[in-house]
Write a structure and sequence with these properties.
Blueprint: E1 20-26, H1 30-43, E2 47-53, E3 56-68, E4 73-76, E5 79-82, E6 84-85, H2 88-101, E7 107-113, E8 120-123, E9 136-142, E10 145-151, E11 157-162, E12 166-171, H3 174-177, E13 178-182, E14 192-198
Parallel strand pairs: 3-6
Antiparallel strand pairs: 1-12, 2-3, 3-7, 4-5, 7-14, 8-13, 9-12, 9-14, 10-11, 10-13
Length: 203
């Protein structure tokens, strides 16, 4: 299913079954989105992402950052990160995502894609540190990029375009039943910043 030409409708599930994904479209003005985009590029402590794959330590071109209410440890791709203290802009965006989605979050994983050459392979966010079936609120800034879902069993796919200043929320059984990815593209040569607000379970 291709939702590129569809108008976003709040609280309508874009997945046919096995999970809930709501796309709210642009939740701020173009001017506000550009303001946050520039602030995030300038103030976030960006670092190249790391992964250990088949015992080999890899650095990605994509950059990441991890922030939260507490210095949470968060492990994915066999690398553990410790959360930094929220910036003013991140707290503003967290409050906005919570207001729009009706959910609460205590942390945020940020990704910086410098161009369309950088993307993310099929995966699901099922790390043990995350609240099971909890909501993940995804805010996008900068270049609009295609975002795709694929059902783990039926292989059915759903794709949509995530615009500058837009909000997408994944929740319920989405991570158990669906993979998602950000496919690379040669058509885009400007950066995209993505914020994924999450809930880490306190132990």
């Amino acid at each position: 299913m291709d939702l590129f030409n569809s108008e976003p409708v709040q609280n309508i599930n874009v997945l046919p079954s096995g999970g809930t994904v709501n796309y709210y479209g642009k939740i701020m003005s173009h001017q506000q989105a550009n303001h946050y985009y520039n602030c995030l590029l300038a103030t976030i402590e960006w670092k190249n992402d790391e992964a250990v794959i088949f015992g080999k330590h890899i650095l990605t071109k994509r950059k990441v950052a991890w922030y939260g209410d507490y210095p949470f440890n968060y492990t994915y791709s066999n690398i553990t990160k410790q959360a930094l203290t929220w910036t003013k802009e991140l707290l503003e965006l967290k409050a906005l995502a919570e207001e729009k989605s009706g959910e609460t979050y205590n942390s945020c994983l940020l990704n910086l894609y410098h161009s369309g050459d950088e993307g993310m392979a099929w995966h699901s966010d099922g790390e043990k540190d995350l609240k099971k079936n909890g909501a993940i609120g995804s805010l996008s800034f900068g270049a609009a990029r295609k975002f795709s879902f694929k059902h783990k069993k039926t292989k059915e796919t759903v794709s949509l375009s995530l615009e500058n200043g837009s909000l997408l929320v994944m929740k319920n059984e989405t991570q158990s039943n669906w993979l998602h990815r950000l496919p690379p593209t040669k058509l885009i040569n400007t950066p995209r910043v993505n914020l994924t607000f999450r809930t880490i379970v306190l132990k």
